[in-house]
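Hey,

The postdoc asked me to send both predictions to you directly instead of through the lab channel. I've kept everything plain text so nothing gets mangled by the mail client. Protein one:
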Amino acid sequence: FPTRRSSDLIDFGRPFYGTIRLTLRGAGKGTRLKINDFQYVCNGELDEQAFCRFKFSKQKIYTLTWKGRFKESDIVDIEGLEISE
């Protein structure tokens, strides 16, 4: 599980090629999250997952920003999805 350096930085401790997946619980419908330059709009379901399927990069720190009623406690899991280069 990665370290959160602040409310908007997710640090995995080492660079990896791939993407990240956030599992959200109770995020309000229409809340907008941004993971680096990928934007996700919450659908308001009890559990949902935000991740970019088609754009991968090599990095260790991801930036998360949001608008709306989102709270950091709405994130129940953060995963690094490593893809073979």
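Protein two:
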Amino acid sequence: RGGFLFITTPNVASFTSRIKLIFGGYPNGLEYCVNEYTNGHIRAYTPSILRKQLNKNKFKIIKITSPNLLFPVKSGLIPNFIKNRMIYLSDLTKNLGEQIVVVARK
């Protein structure tokens, strides 16, 4: 109580996941079982579902965003002015980026 909660998780509804699905691919954030030694890992969150889950558990959301609209902005190959534009677009859409980032508290 009184502390902060920081969450990052893949966004299953990201722009690239939507494009992958159109062409028969598998969305980001879902891993299926590939052999008898793996079980897969499911992180099927969208910003709105994560918001509902946090509200249900009485967390106050301070900020929720979905950065990295088309590519990881930490890549050294991408000029800063392009990175800054992509971060800005991600903050505007809040639901198409590769990741969901939440800051909340009880």
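Summary for protein two, as requested: The chain has a mean pLDDT of 82.

Thanks,
C.
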